[in-house]
Amino acid sequence: MNQIQRYYLSSSFFLIFHFLPLIAEPISSFSLKSFNGDKDSDFNSDFALLGDAQIANEGNFVNLTSPNSGSSSGQIVYKKPFTFIDSKSSKPISFSTEFTFTITPGDGDGMAFVIFPKVEELSKVFDQGYFGLSGMVDQKFVAVEYDTRKDDNVGDFNGNHVGVDVGNFVSEEISDVSSIGLLLNGGVPLKSWIDYEASSKRLEIRLAESGTERPYNPLIFYPIDLSKMWDSKDLLVGISSSSGNSSQISSLSSWSFEIRTIPSSLHSEPLNPESKMDENQRVPMKKSCFLTILGGVIFATGCGTMLAFIALFLWVIFFGRHSNVVPELPMNPVDFKYEKVDVTVDNVDDESTRLSTG
């Protein structure tokens, strides 16, 4: 396959795998790059720091655990609830989150990103146990753990892995971080991306050193239907850590989170074909029509571009290498020179007389 063929093939895959996120409809989001209420007026009203969590280095990061305690745990929680089914449109909700963290050497639990049902008192679901989350054993929760301690009681195979926990701390899916050349508690800033796609019901986790590009392949791919798990319940998200009996410190230096819906015209099937929306939940007609038309135009443009790439790719494969076109030779005017030639003929009779006389 030549360079042109590879270019059009890669372009086609880019359009296929990156088209849907471009037309997703964002609902709400936040992006934390500082943790100081003096710099961000919304921080104190939107976020809660629990346990030993405290702002450090003038708001540049949050220490979730404290080195001054032999057993420390702490959490940061976004206090605005959300659901995995949009109450206005009944569309399933997708989410994406990314955060940069550092875990110092030590035999602590590490840290975890967690989704859990809203409670009146947050302090009742956090404690000194696994990742500071043991109080959630009576709750339906989903956590992505960044585990730095091997615990045979929950089936850990080493102290350097990422796992998906559903309702308990025996991971449903687990991946060795050593396989990508990273160490969770090496004191090096790491960045993780967690994405849930409602249309395909999949959870993907990626991990890399901070400052590097987002990995193409996920570290973990886990199928799960979060809308079925929680239905329309109000949920919260947070990041929690526990140092165990060590002096391990888990720090968070940035965190962003976004929830969004995919336009219904792009879903292969409705969430519940038999359900109907109440009249007071319907989207206004003008807005609905506009979004439908806009989505259709973007979809048609993307499909047209993709088909053009594919057609050109196939033409290069089947016809480009067998071209029988004969190149035309240049036709330039040529000057010809004509000269007059004088021809002299001797008298034949005189020559014959001389031959006879002799």
Characterization of this structure:
- The chain has 358 residues and is an alpha+beta fold.
- It folds into 2 domains: 68 residues; 238 residues, Jelly Rolls (Sandwich), CATH 2.60.120.200.
- Helices cover 20% and strands 29% of the residues.
- The protein contains 5 helices and 15 strands.
- Strands 1, 3, 4, 6, 11, 12, 13 and 15 form an 8-stranded antiparallel sheet that branches. A 7-stranded antiparallel sheet has the order 2-5-14-7-8-9-10.
- Strand 11 and strand 12 form a beta hairpin.
- The longest helix has 34 residues.
- The C terminus is likely disordered.
Describe this protein with a few key phrases.
eight-stranded antiparallel β-sheet; Jelly Rolls; single chain; 358 residues; 2 domains; seven-stranded antiparallel β-sheet
Give a topology summary:
Blueprint: H1 3-22, E1 25-32, H2 43-46, E2 47-51, E3 54-56, E4 61-63, E5 73-82, E6 94-103, E7 110-117, E8 142-147, E9 161-166, E10 173-176, E11 190-197, E12 202-209, E13 220-223, H3 226-230, E14 235-242, E15 250-261, H4 285-318, H5 348-357
Antiparallel strand pairs: 1-15, 2-5, 3-4, 4-15, 5-14, 6-11, 6-15, 7-8, 7-14, 8-9, 9-10, 11-12, 12-13
- Integer average pLDDT: 78
Number of domains: 2
Spans of at least 5 consecutive residues whose pLDDT stays below 50 are: 6-24, 265-289, 352-358
CATH architecture verdict of the largest domain: Sandwich
**Biggest sheet descriptor:** 8 strands, antiparallel
Helical stretch tally: 5
Based on secondary structure, the structural category is alpha+beta
Give the overall shape, derived from the CA principal axes.
globular
Give the CA-CA distance, first to last residue: 91 Å
How large a portion of the residues is in β-strands, by DSSP E?
A: 25-35%
